[in-house]
């Protein structure tokens, strides 16, 4: 039976507590989800399973996963030592009509305003079925973290507005980077070119760097 959406933060966190310590395989079996042998071709599988089990409602809409609670869910694969194993996708990067956009109104800020982090032991030598779900926790950016994210957002969005998208690489940003987000290089979208003309380029996404999510884990678990 599909779980209904949680009606309060307490109810959501009770569900988070209930799945803590289970393996992805145990949770998947409970809801008759098929567990893939590896996640290379099914990168979103873990997130979809957890969203389903916790009763998330947003689907692919650009709103937080638990719309009425204003909470975004982020699964975070971690190593045996509790360090993030990969960057965290936040949202698609707008590439057109970006002049006049502000950090305060951006999708990124809305998504990161209140996050439910769910660490999952994700070392590559553990098959998806046996990966353990850790203790989920709620997080809101401190004033310092918000300012750091705003700086990264503004610096990179300015390059997009100036038609300098090709200068953006994963090295930019202290906390957050922009990088291509496409299943393959045949998928292209419109962006602003060097002389203001429309060019074709790969879709881009905002990703939190592992150094930033590692700090969040440190704060939470006093690692």
From TrEMBL:
GO molecular function term, any single one:
endonuclease activity
Region forming the signal peptide: none
Q: Which CDD domains match?
A: MutH-like
Query: Would the keyword Nuclease be found if you checked this record's keyword annotation?
Result: yes
Pfam families xrefs: MutH (PF02976)
- Note the superkingdom of the native organism: Bacteria
Location(s), subcellular = Cytoplasm
Cite the InterPro entries for this sequence.
DNA_mismatch_repair_MutH, DNA_rep_MutH/RE_typeII_Sau3AI, DNA_rep_MutH/T2_RE_sf, Restrct_endonuc-II-like
Please indicate if the UniProt record lists Nucleus as a keyword. no
Q: Which residues form the DNA mismatch repair MutH/Type II restriction enzyme Sau3AI domain?
A: 54-152
Keywords of this entry: Cytoplasm, DNA damage, DNA repair, Endonuclease, Hydrolase, Nuclease
> Any idea what job this protein has?
Sequence-specific endonuclease that cleaves unmethylated GATC sequences. It is involved in DNA mismatch repair.
Q: Which family does it belong to?
A: Belongs to the MutH family.
- Record's protein name: DNA mismatch repair protein MutH
Q: Which organism is it from?
A: Pseudoalteromonas neustonica
């Amino acid at each position: 039976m599909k779980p209904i959406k949680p009606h309060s933060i307490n109810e959501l966190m009770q569900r988070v507590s209930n799945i803590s310590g289970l393996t992805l395989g145990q949770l998947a079996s409970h809801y008759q989800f098929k567990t893939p042998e590896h996640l290379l071709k099914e990168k979103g599988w873990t997130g979809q399973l957890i969203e389903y089990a916790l009763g998330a409602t947003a689907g692919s809409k650009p709103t937080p996963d638990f719309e009425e609670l204003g909470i975004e869910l982020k699964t975070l694969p971690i190593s045996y030592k509790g360090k993030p194993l990969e960057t965290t996708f936040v949202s698609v990067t707008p590439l057109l009509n970006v002049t006049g956009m502000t950090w305060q109104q951006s999708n990124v800020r809305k998504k990161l305003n209140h996050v439910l982090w769910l660490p999952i032991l994700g070392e590559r030598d553990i098959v998806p079925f046996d990966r353990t779900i850790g203790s989920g926790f709620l997080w809101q950016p401190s004033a310092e973290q918000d300012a750091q994210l705003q700086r990264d957002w503004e610096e990179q969005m300015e390059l997009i507005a100036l038609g300098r998208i090709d200068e953006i690489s994963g090295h930019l940003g202290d906390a957050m980077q922009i990088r291509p987000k496409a299943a393959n290089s045949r998928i292209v979208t419109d962006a602003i070119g060097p002389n203001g003309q429309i060019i074709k380029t790969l879709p881009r996404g905002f990703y939190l760097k592992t150094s930033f999510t590692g700090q969040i884990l440190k704060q939470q678990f006093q690692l």
